[in-house]
C-alpha cells in the first residue's frame, strides 16, 4: 500500500484531529487486542533471544505496548537481538586476528553489512513496541496503564532532584 501509514484514531483524538476530517465511530471499529499478561517464550527461542525475552517482555507488558496480538512480532525482535549479538561476536573475532587474509577482509565486510541490516530491522521493530527512546513519546496508552517514571501518583512528572531537595528540607 502506497503512502503514509494511517495514524491510530486514538492518537488523532489526543492530538485534536489535525486533519479535521470526520472521525465518526471509527474507535468502536478498531481492533482492541487482549492483554493477558506476560507469557513464556516458545521452545525454539533459546540462548540470548530467551534472555532478551525475559529481560524486556515484562517491561513491555507493563508499559502496555505488548498485547496478545504482538507476541509473534516480539519473538522476531528477540531473535533479531540474538542475531545482532552473534554477528558482533564474529566481527570482533575477525578484527582481533593478527594477520588477516583477503578472504578474512571479505568476510568481515559481509558480516558488518549483515549486522547493519540486523540493527536497522531491530531498531524499527523495537520502535513498534515503544522500546526506543525516540519511539516512546509517540506511544499513548489508555488511561490507567503505565506510569510516567518519577511520577507523583497522578501521572504528572516530578523532577527527581526537586523531590530529593524537598525531602531533604523536610517539607
Rg estimate, integer Å: 22 Å
What's the mean pLDDT score?
78
The beta-strand count equals 0
Determine the N-to-C terminus distance: 58 Å
- How much of the polypeptide forms β-strand, as a percent range? under 5%
**Helix run count:** 6
SSE pattern, N- to C-terminal: HHHHHH
User: Main sheet?
Assistant: none
Tell me briefly what this model is:
With 171 residues, the protein is an all-alpha fold. The chain is 53% helix and 0% strand. It has a domain at 38-140.
Describe this structure in words.
This protein is mostly helical and 171 residues long. 53% of the residues lie in helices and 0% in strands. α3 crosses α4 and α4 runs antiparallel to α5. It is extended, with a radius of gyration of 22 Å. The termini are far apart.
Key structural traits:
171 residues, mainly alpha, 6 helices, 53% helix, 0% strand
Helix and strand topology:
Layout lengths: L8 H7 L10 H4 L17 H17 L7 H25 L6 H27 L31 H10 L2
Helix pairs in contact: 3-4, 4-5
